[in-house]
Amino acid sequence: MADEGCWPAMDLLRSEPMQLVQLIIPFESAYRTISYLGDLGLFQFNDLNAEKSLFQRTYAAQIKGCGEMACKLRFFRDQMIKEGLSPSSTSSAGPYVDLDELEKASQFFHSAQSSAAAQHKESEAHILGEGSVDSPLLLEQEMSTEPLNQMKLGFVSGLVGREKSVAFERILFRATRGNIFLRQLQVVMEDPVIDPVSGDKVEKNVFFVFYSGERADSKILKICDAFGANRYPFTDDLGKQYLMITEVLGKLSELKATIDVGQLHQANLLQTIGYEFEQWNLLTKESPPTYFRTNKFTSAIQEIVDAYGVAKYQEANPGVFTIITFPFLFAVMFGDWGHGICLFLATLYFISREKKLSRQKLGDIMEMTFGGRYVIMMMALFSIYTGLIWKLRLWLQRFNLQGCFYSGIN
């Protein structure tokens, strides 16, 4: 806090004077007051309950609700991406976000989403019947109903992923040693089938497996579960099959009309959410903190760099270049290879015993030296290098290796 009038007015040189204030607000209007002050962008709030955990604070339930609401907003974004929609950049900016209204919208959308998913699942459960009307697979079964009953053959019907169909057939053949009869047909639809478990659109095949024996039945059921196949019961009686086909066709027409209305309603609801999404999804303009992953070799160099200034978020780290430039500049100024050898031997001692010394309590000077052992070692190596170059130059000046090319002028 700075007192007003203490410094002359200097708009660019110094920041604006600040005043520490304390507001006493009724509990009922606290949210709207703080929201309005936050929208102004002229206040910095001090946390007076820093020693308390999140669960001990007054607004712990509201903070938890904000976290849950963030998860629901991510769900809204995923649904809009699936429908090919994007949040509107021209959403209306209200004075504040009403969490209660957002919660009601979320509950309404979840109920609509679950209802649509249930209808899709029911539609997929009956898709086998629709495909059986013109399918030669069932026609063959109808023609051979009596022989099947006499031989007491069982069968399993359902849907399996198209990319798994070849492996599914191979595993069934090996598990039953070829004592099965498998038929598969591709489900020909405008859109892929929606998997009732994952909810994703998947291309599937209709399969019928005919077998005999209870052991084969248990093996086939386990293999179907392992491949994520959706099994649907189908009766052996021919009359019941026709009755089931008629009922399924009627249900499919009803479900198709219901799903079309539901999808239209979902698209309208997602468009409304997309228009308000940017307002609900509050973003901060503060940059994330800077963190560089270091080890025992680069930590001392990074501390030297941070002493002069910390790079911005995801800005190029000058510590990478300082690993070489800092010891080299020191060696240019120092340039003594004899003292460099002494420093190098001392740092070798610290490095060879670093595991033991790291567990001991060292003094201030010794701890600082031990922490920068790798930096000192690099400085010593560069000092030896530059010192040898300097001494070699002085030593070569004593010898006239090529003679003198200077000639006087008469």
TrEMBL record:
Membership in a protein family: Belongs to the V-ATPase 116 kDa subunit family.
InterPro entries: V-ATPase_116kDa_su
Top-level taxonomy: Eukaryota, Viridiplantae, Streptophyta, Embryophyta, Tracheophyta
GO molecular function, one term: ATPase binding
Its biological purpose: Essential component of the vacuolar proton pump (V-ATPase), a multimeric enzyme that catalyzes the translocation of protons across the membranes. Required for assembly and activity of the V-ATPase.
Any one biological process term the GO annotation gives: vacuolar acidification
Record carries keyword Metal-binding: no
Organism listed in the record: Fraxinus pennsylvanica
Record Pfam families: V_ATPase_I
Protein name: V-type proton ATPase subunit a
Subcellular location: Membrane
Transmembrane feature ranges: 328-351, 372-390
PANTHER family: V-TYPE PROTON ATPASE SUBUNIT A, VACUOLAR PROTON ATPASES
A single cellular component GO annotation: vacuolar proton-transporting V-type ATPase complex
Coarse class of the protein's main subcellular location: membrane
Membrane topology type: Multi-pass membrane protein
Keywords: Hydrogen ion transport, Ion transport, Membrane, Transmembrane, Transmembrane helix, Transport
